[in-house]
Amino acid sequence: MVGLKEELLKSIWHAFTALDLDRSGKVLSHNLCTVLNVPHDPVALEEHFRDDDEGPVSNQGYMPYLNKFILEKVQGNFDKVEFNRMCWTLCAKKNLFKSPLLISDEDAFKVWVIFNFLSEDKYPLIIVPEEIEYLLKKITEAMGAGWQQEQFDHYKIALNTSREGLSAWELIELIGSGQFSKGMDRQTVSMAINEVFNELILDVLKQGYMLKKGHKRKNWMERWFVLKPNIISYYVSEDLKDKKGDIILDGNCCVEALPDKDGKKCLFLIKCLDKTFEISASDKKKKQEWIQAIQTTVNLLRAGSPPPHKEARQKRKELRQKLLAEQEELERQMKELQAANENKQKELETVRKQLEAAAARAAEEEKKRLQTQVELQDRFSLELEREKMVRQKMEEQVAQKSSELEQYLQRVRELEEMYKQLQEALEDEKQARQDEETVRKLQARLLEEETAKRAELEKWHLQQQQTIQMTEAEKQELENQRMMKEQALQVAMQQLKQLELERKEALEQYEEVKKKLETAANNTKSWKDKVAHHEGLIRLIEPGSKNPHLITNWGPAAFTEAELEERQRSWKGKKATSE
């Protein structure tokens, strides 16, 4: 409803601004309530437009009344063309230029409605150059002419230098002047405007003549089909006066191509939940175009997307907003850079002034320094002369002292040479004594080592003799143990052989006993079969308990004591019953 309200406001704005302010509210409100199918409230209207300081000419204005009593009650069940025509009627006479146009008033009305659809959402309403280019391209394509991009670029440059865009009346004058439709007659331009109007305003995605098969009489009739975002309407002719029916489209619908049949060609089928429609196009190209257009519409319904032209308008608007935001951001950054640059310039100017002041101070200081330097040079020259005289005297004294020092040094060198010779003699004597002492100590150490070696060799010899004796004894003992183990092994082997023979004999005895048991079991089974019906006469011998067994007339170990007592009680009971 927000988008519908914005579309209505644009047309209402044109009508409201074209009328006198004192009477525009009442006249416009009454007409709006009529065309929008909104209940008219004369009391609220008179209350709002009473002659005082709270009427529409005050700060309160006309918009609060329009929103509260009209736009909020709009349900969408009104004729948009009739609504736009009413607003056009109120504003066209005042704003439409008197210069002759190449388009009719009806075409101008349609251009005005298209302007409201493509204009920006800000007042006063204008259409930006991008939307002008889009509209002119659509009209040019509808006329079947080639688009002159270079011509429009020149026009766009001239337009951008003076303003942001065109008003509705300037757009009508631009299209009506024939500047971008040269060589086209009025009828061609009118048909192109009508086609663009049908697509952008009436949401007509495709229209044209096709044959439709009836549901009752099954006959084929030519109809004018109009495809919209959620419906396909078909009429007797293209004047849209006699409507024959609608095909409601939703996400569950589908369209399929059919093979030719019954003399009809270029067939396709539209399947809905409740009905199926067979349609025949004039040729294969039209058939494919209609199938593709219907399928695209169904896909948009499934995805919940708006019609292509509305979606394209929204994308263009978002792109412009993005570019505008980027431009504003760029301008902001440029301003920041400019401000930073100005601050830098100010800082540089301050630094320059500081440098100039510092240079002036430095020049003054340099002047003072030069003056001081001259004074110092004069003083230094005097001191230098005085120093030269002192140095000459000192040099003479130094020459004398040097001669005396040389003699003294010569004597010192001679004494040092004598001291070195004496020191060397002492060192030679000391070294000879150290060598003698070293040789003596070495001889003593060698004697001690020889003695220790002899004692150690004697000890090793004794240990070797003892080890040899112990090794012989251990060897003899190990030999005895080995002989004993071999004897035990031979005995164990003999016992193993004996056990193997005994095992074989036991196996043979086991096989014989097993055969005897099988024979006995077979005999027992045959006896069981013979005496099964004579209970008590014969009882097979079975393993009994470990308790003592009794010997009866049935044989030894036939019954246990408990079983015999049970038998006796049974016999006594039977005997008492028979007596």
UniProtKB/TrEMBL annotation:
SUPFAM superfamilies: PH domain-like. CDD domains: PH_SWAP-70 (cd13273). It comes from the Eukaryota. The keyword DNA-binding applies. Residues 203-299 form the PH domain. One of its GO terms (molecular function) is DNA binding. One of its GO terms (cellular component) is nucleus. Keywords: Cell membrane, Cell projection, Coiled coil, Cytoplasm, DNA-binding, Membrane, Nucleus, Phosphoprotein. It is found in: Cell membrane; Cell projection, Lamellipodium; Cytoplasm; Nucleus. Residues 309-530 form a coiled coil. The keyword Heme does not apply. InterPro entries: EF-hand_SWAP70_N (IPR057836), PH-like_dom_sf (IPR011993), PH_domain (IPR001849), PH_SWAP70 (IPR057837). Phosphatidylinositol 3,4,5-trisphosphate-dependent guanine nucleotide exchange factor (GEF) which, independently of RAS, transduces signals from tyrosine kinase receptors to RAC. It also mediates signaling of membrane ruffling. Regulates the actin cytoskeleton as an effector or adapter protein in response to agonist stimulated phosphatidylinositol (3,4)-bisphosphate production and cell protrusion. The SWAP complex consists of NPM1, NCL, PARP1 and SWAP70. PANTHER family: SWAP-70 RECOMBINASE (PTHR14383), SWITCH-ASSOCIATED PROTEIN 70 (PTHR14383:SF6). This is Switch-associated protein 70. It comes from Edolisoma coerulescens.
